[in-house]
Design brief:
Layout (H helix, E strand, L loop, with lengths): L2 H91 L1
Length: 94
């Protein structure tokens, strides 16, 4: 191998080292961006999970309210029937 060939090989090695350094920097930037995106997604997921939990609580409250309303309606209907019978008996005697 000539001195020129050896010199060219060392230049190629130096160029490869320089290129490798640039690639490592680029990979580091990509990793940082991915970490940011993952952190943002994690925050959004936490927020969505909190919203879902709140919606479940509101739904349970509505369901409890419907149960109470149904029970109250049943009681009022029964009282209405009893009042109707009582009035019918009262007018029937007059």
């Amino acid at each position: 191998m000539s001195e020129r060939d050896i010199h060219n090989l060392w230049e190629a090695v130096d160029a490869l080292r320089h290129g490798q350094g640039e690639l490592l920097v680029a990979v580091g930037r990509i990793e940082a961006r991915l970490a940011e995106r993952c952190a943002e997604r994690a925050k959004r997921l936490d927020s969505l999970n909190a919203d879902i939990a709140e919606a479940q609580k509101r739904l349970e409250a509505v369901e409890r309210g419907q149960s109470r309303l149904a029970a109250a309606s049943s009681v009022l209907a029964s009282l209405g029937v009893l009042a109707g019978q009582w009035l019918f008996r009262l007018w029937g005697r007059s």
